[in-house]
Amino acid sequence: MSDRPLDIGWLRIFEAAGRLGNLTRAAEELGLSQPSVSYQIQTLEAQVGVPLLRRLHRGTELTEEGRILFEAVSANVGRIDEAARRIRQRIRKPGVRLYTDYGFASFWLMPRVAEFRRAHPGVEVHIVASQALESDLEAIADTGVMFGTAKDFGAGARLLMPERVVPVCSPRLVDRLGPMDSAAKIAAAPLLHLDTAARPRWITWTSWLVEQGIAREPGQADLGLNTYSLVIQAAMAEQGVALGWIGLVDALLDSGTLVPVGPELKRPDWGYWLVPTRSENTATRALNDWLLDNR
Hints:
Helix content: 40-55%
Number of strands: 11
Structural class: alpha/beta
Distance between the termini: 35 Å
CATH class of the largest domain: Alpha Beta
Shape: elongated
CATH superfamily of the largest domain: Periplasmic binding protein-like II
């Protein structure tokens, strides 16, 4: 089903011309020629009996009469577009927009989406992934899985996955560098960092090493990457040691693609939280219940 705006003739042409103050720009926005837009405006002016646009050296401006008509037209064009959107939504499959970060989407959610779709074939899932802690979830999604603490998300949030982190790397890297049976040996290896512009909310190499009694600055052999997927791919490619989140890297550990090489660090109050919105509907509830059942 197309999302193309309904053809409402002169209403849309006059609204664009009045809003943009330029017949050429209005024509470009509507996919029309400038002469056809100009003709439609002239025809409309002939029908109402007064000029609606004042032609300037560069562009146009509304006359007083044109502004009266523009206020009525612009309000109703918006209402017509919203009505068309609502009608189209009624005949589409129910859809749920889920906001989360790249790591959770790639390693936990995507492998399980097929299972959810088999159980709920009438629901479409749209994943909106970002590394940011979204403050206005309602504006962009119907539900979210976000990383932080309970106080970040309010009373309705439910913990899906507490934060548990263990150093991981390719078994071939262990073969090449030797056993990493102490925190000091891990600190001496190339470390793979998840870079972020904001202050990290998750455990970092700095915080993990501090817990082991080691202070270490990033080394020349270290590698910073801007998504967790790239961090794990670099670990599988023997480029260094990564911090593996239990719940995200389980399949790679079970298969032996990655191996744990250090002690686990836990923060039970931190983790991934299911954060529902006030716009919850039947499809959203189905997805939220499924996420909770598959923790």
